[in-house]
Amino acid sequence: MDTKDIQKLIDFIAQSGLDEVSIETNELKLSVKRFGQAPVLAAQPVAQPTVQAALPAAQPAVSAATPPSAPKADTSNYLTIKSPMIGTFYRSAGPDAESFVEIGDEVKPGKTVCIIEAMKLFNEIESEVAGRIVKVLVENATPVEYDQPLFLVEPI
């Protein structure tokens, strides 16, 4: 079973009413459980989802300190590049390498914008939209969830 098969299984669980699926073969034992909106691999530590839940809650508090109408109006016009899988987000191919994209860079469909490491496999994530990167929503080397926004893109 490769990463794409696992991602298909996670997508299936996300769209179905199932809360838990376990698969066991001679080579692999996989258990996927749904907690809230997004499915989470059971092998992940419990602390990671807690941290993920705390980060989005902290961001609105920060934006509430700024004028509330400006961020809402600005972000509504932007497209979002989202994580297609659960894993660890990396902005570059290596610690000393340049980031795939920076704020202000133009992206086209098919351009690699980041890497997500899942189960020791490094998956290049490509943009599905055309535009200009206006914000990177995730810190380098941090865990991301399925369908979590990674970048805000201004259409051009």
Question: Can you tell me about this structure?
Answer:
This protein is a component of the acetyl coenzyme A carboxylase complex; first, biotin carboxylase catalyzes the carboxylation of the carrier protein and then the transcarboxylase transfers the carboxyl group to form malonyl-CoA. Residues 57-67 have a biased composition (Low complexity). It is a single chain. By secondary structure, the chain is an alpha+beta fold. The chain has a domain at 76-154: OB fold (Dihydrolipoamide Acetyltransferase, E2P), CATH 2.40.50.100. The protein has three helices and eleven strands. The strands form three sheets. The protein has a four-stranded antiparallel sheet, with no helix packed on it. Strands 8-7-5-10 form a four-stranded antiparallel sheet, with no helix packed on it. A three-stranded antiparallel sheet has the order 1-2-3, with helices on one face. A hairpin with a 4-residue loop joins strand 1 (20-24) and strand 2. The longest helix is centred in the middle third of the chain and has 19 residues, at 47-65. The protein is globular. Residues 42-58 and 60-73 have low confidence and may be disordered.
